[in-house]
Amino acid sequence: MENCSIVTKPALNVVGISYSGPYSSFPDDAIRLQTEILARKHELNEAVKSTVLYCPYHGNEAFATYWACFEVQHLEELPPGMVQLTIPAHRYAMVACSNKRIGEGYEQLKTWMGEQRLQKHDSAVSLELFYIDEQHWEEEPVELLIPLQD
Questions:
Q1: How many distinct structural domains can be found in the chain?
Q2: Can you give the residue range of the structural domain that contains 113?
Q3: What is the pTM of this model?
Q4: Over the stretch 52-72, which tens digit does the pLDDT of each residue have?
């Protein structure tokens, strides 16, 4: 599985919006949330550091909390309905795929983690990074990151 690897990401300051609910409504609610934050990106002005859409999430057997965010410098004032949070630095198991093949990407990453005997850090958030090309929103590169136990 040549597109799987271990990466270290520094702490990340993000601003965005979230959704919590049952898994049964995914991925529709995730797509709705991403569409909403993309439409509101202009409210963050020059604070946005890149076009990457960061989607941290955490879940259990019944529900998940999913965010759609942009990386920013710390903001003193936030647009209405947006929240600022810092994701701590972590080591992650990562796979590259596309937004059309996220399910396959997760299966590949979980298989690779098993082969490598890597353990998920259960209390840390996982991340989906969408590399947005606003001219071509059809098929985008995505990185899926699962935090690892030290």
A1: 1
A2: 4-147
A3: 0.92
A4: 999 999 988 888 899 999 999
